[in-house]
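lol ok so funny story. i was supposed to be doing the assay writeup but got distracted and ended up predicting the structure for this chain instead. priorities right. anyway since i did it might as well share w the group, maybe its usefull for someone
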Amino acid sequence: MIECYFKNQEVVNRLRESVLGPQLDTFASVVSDSGYSHATIRTQIHLLAGLIRWIQKNEIIISDIDEDITNLFLKESARKGALRRGDKKTLRCFLDHLRVEGLIDYPAPTFNDS
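and the output, tada:
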């Protein structure tokens, strides 16, 4: 599916060979079916590719990815001036996708004792 968004086959191969490559393909399919534009999906895949590189660089285990990890990634992106509107939502959707795929756990429910 990601080959629909990138003309360069080397880019597609590099994305597919990453630790979450198969999930990039399925995520692209899901957001495409949801009606997102070609340009938006391409931007989302770029963001997720950056997340994957960051995860590998920081030696984070896939099963440890959660909102705290993605928030750290977003903070670092913001410091570099690379944060775009919609990035947080994209990462939240990707986390949901990874949970549906069974790669990461759902967050533990929180209880309010007040």
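The mean pLDDT is 92. The helical segments are 9-16, 21-33, 38-57, 67-79, 87-100.
back to the writeup now i swear
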